Amino acid sequence: MSHISVLLHETVDAVLAQRTTGVFVDATFGRGGHTRLLLSKLDENAQVFAFDKDPEAIAVATQLAEQDQRFSIIHASFADIKMELNQRDIMHIDGIMADLGVSSPQLDQAERGFSFMHNGALDMRMDNSQGQTAREWLLDIDETALADIIYKYGEERYSRRIAKAIKQAGDIATTAELADIVKNVHPKWEKHKHPATRTFQAIRIAINKELDDVEIFLPQAVELLKPQGRLAVISFHSLEDRLIKQFIQQESTLPEDIGWGLPQQQDTRRLKKIDRVKASEQEVKDNPRSRSAWLRVAERLA
Questions:
Q1: Tell me, what's the pLDDT at 259?
Q2: d(C-alpha 114, C-alpha 120), whole Å
Q3: Is the predicted pLDDT of residue 21 greater than 90, yes or no?
Q4: Under the phi-then-psi rule, with left for phi > 0, alpha for psi from -120 to 50, and beta for the rest, what region is 251?
Q5: Four-point Cα dihedral 245, 246, 249, 254, nearest 10
Q6: Is-contact 231 275, C-beta < 8 A?
Q7: Can you count the helices (H) and strands (E) in the chain?
Q8: Which of 11, 52, 202, 254 could form a disulfide with 153 if both were Cys (CB 3.0 to 4.6 A apart)?
């Protein structure tokens, strides 16, 4: 399956907020669907910077940068966004968007090792030029820590028995081997869902530090935004969405009075909630992977 950008027009329109120029960031370039649409709506004086950890995404983005002088690609995690932009003399931006999680090309390429649907080497690294593979990581981690991660990041109720089976298996070389191990010890499967789904998700999140990176990224994004600048983030599972929801809630809530007859707390709000958008029925029909997607949008206050 080729990559279809989820909530494409909704995200780009939300970030632009009817602007046609400025400095914008796509924190997760992927295959560039959001970036290309953004560029098509901006004038010749605009600048767009994109981030990605995946060398294959960087190759696609490099071609786009050669075609459009307004665009620059940065091979780094969005957790480093402020440092990377500041090094390029970009201190403030007009909008930033992020499409979290794994992309369709990563899922569909067996050799990337993200999916139990395609047998391949057990890798799962978004940046496969560095760091431990899932195979190496599973050998190093102890059973208790693995069970905790499968429970926390996969929300898998049978995490203990799954972790025990994985550690007893020893060196697991392929996605099919791991999927079979989980399937054989999983006592109760959800309808229309492979029993290894939650375990694969948990391992992927852990080795790529996905939730850690989101927690580091969000405050930096707000610091970079100009007043009325927009933040638009797409998430695909409840753990990501909860992080984003809680962050926006925290940044957009007025502190309560500290006591009768005493001065109010300083207004520390930095964001205003704008919208929460789910993929339409038609989009879900055209692209089933959009089913679980949520877009949250917030605006920087003065």
A1: 52
A2: 9
A3: yes
A4: alpha
A5: 180
A6: no
A7: 13, 7
A8: 202
Q: Can you list the positions of beta strands (E) in 76-202?
A: 93-99
Helix (H) or strand (E) holding 105: helix 104-108
Distances from the Cα of 288 to the Cα of 81, 235, 236, 281, 285, angstroms:
31, 15, 12, 10, 6
Tell me, what amino acid is at 279?
A
In this structure, is the dihedral angle defined by the CA atoms of residues 52, 53, 55 and 56, taken in order, positive or negative? negative
- Mean pLDDT over residues 28-52, rounded? 97
Instruction: Quote the CA–CA distance of 29 and 117 in Å, as a whole number.
Output: 24
Q: Are 148 and 157 in contact (CB under 8 A)?
A: no
Write out the two tokens for 173: 């070389």
Q: How far apart are CA 172 and CA 203, in angstroms?
A: 13
Taken in order of first residue, the domains within the chain and their CATH numbers are 8-104+210-300 (3.40.50.150), 107-208 (1.10.150.170)
Distance CA 134, CA 149 (A): 13
Q: What's the confidence (pLDDT) of residue 66?
A: 98
Within a 10 A sphere around the Cβ of 44, how many other Cβ atoms? 7
- Give the span between the Cα atoms of 70 and 77, in whole angstroms: 21
Mean of the per-residue pLDDT values of the chain = 92
pLDDT digits (tens, 9 = 90+) for 60-79: 999 999 999 999 999 999 99
Please tell me the distance from the alpha carbon of residue 238 to that of residue 217, in angstroms, as a whole number.
18
